Amino acid sequence: MKNLLLTLVIFSFFSCKNSTTEKVSSEVQDSKLIEVFKASENNFPNISVHRGGKGLVNYPENSLEVLKYVSDSIVAIYEIDVAQTKDGQLVLLHDNSIDRTTTGSGKVDSFTYDELKQFNLVDDYGNETNFKIPLFSEVLNWCTNNNVILTVDIKKSVSQKVVIDAIREANAKDICVIITYDIEQAIGAYKLAPDFLLSVSARNDEEFNRLLEAEIPTKNMLAFTGTRLSDASLYKKLHDYNIVCMLGTLGNLDKSAEAKGGELYLKWEKNGADIMATDRPFAAYSAIN
Predict the structure, then answer these.
(1) Contact 190, 162 (CB under 8 A)
(2) Residue 27 has what pLDDT?
(3) Per-domain residue ranges of the chain
(4) Each residue of 127-165: pLDDT tens digit?
């Protein structure tokens, strides 16, 4: 039922019409996510799961297993972190080192992927699992086959081009959003992937105005408005451009909702946040849906 729902959410109307949006190249088709993630459509998942799932017993962050576990219960999109090994393999890992999340120790780029496979992933409570650091390619393959949307956080040591090329090679642009943190990253990602949906930092009017001045089409933008609640006027301005707004509740806002009740998620939604990026995906999903 869940997979059927997400399939309908993402793909239902694509077989009925071709996009008339102007393309940078007539031979390049926009990611289907560019049509799905419009504020006026309101038919996209409203929960973004931080690091694929955090704080879950026996399910480590940034593992393929945690994606499968969470997606079996809720409809959401999943933020993942992409790092690179010594031999150039793209893997899912948040930190520069493997110390916190595996049974090993050292920097990820000092190991080949085969060397990393000797270590097991551990959950946030230190419990060792039988799970391994996954290849980005195998995660892309599973997500494509199961209509699971990813927001891809490219670590600083990794080239945007390498990651975008890997997504293209996997024919996975229709399930991937590229995360950028500043105007320079946003411009670079757009030049490399004008057909992708980009998560851009728009925490205030100044940041959004800089994005507009950079002439990145607003159709390519999913606005991350930060981890603090913005004034409703910012959400309205973004919505006027038909841009979906993502609020990072991970951190203090999640803690407030845990202490005061899930109705806070509804309050933030009414203020203008379309998607909650959270470390409490089950609670947030239950409150909103």
Answers:
(1) no
(2) 67
(3) 31-93+135-288
(4) 999 999 999 999 999 999 999 999 999 999 999 999 999
CB within 8 Å of 201: residues ≥ 6 apart: 180, 181, 182, 186, 207, 224, 226
CATH superfamily of 31-93+135-288: Phosphatidylinositol (PI) phosphodiesterase (3.20.20.190)
Q: What pLDDT is stored for residue 28 in this prediction?
A: 85
Strand-pair partners of 277: 48, 248
pLDDT at 13 over 80: no
Instruction: Check residue 42 and give its pLDDT.
Output: 86
The tokens for 127 are 């419990």
Question: Which pLDDT score, from 0 to 100, does residue 39 have?
Answer: 97
Q: Is the dihedral of CA 141, 144, 145, 147 positive or negative?
A: positive
Q: What angle do CA 140, 142, 145 make, to 5 degrees?
A: 105
| Four-residue CA torsion sign, 83, 85, 87, 89 | negative
Longest dimension (CA), the chain: 52
The H or E element containing residue 7 is helix 2-11
Q: How far apart are the first and last CA of the chain?
A: 15
Query: What SS3 state is found at 212?
Result: helix
CB 127 within 8 A of CB 142: no
What amino acid is encoded at 287 in this protein? A
Whether the pTM exceeds 0.70: the reply is yes
Pairing relation of β-strands 90-92 and 77-84?
Answer: antiparallel
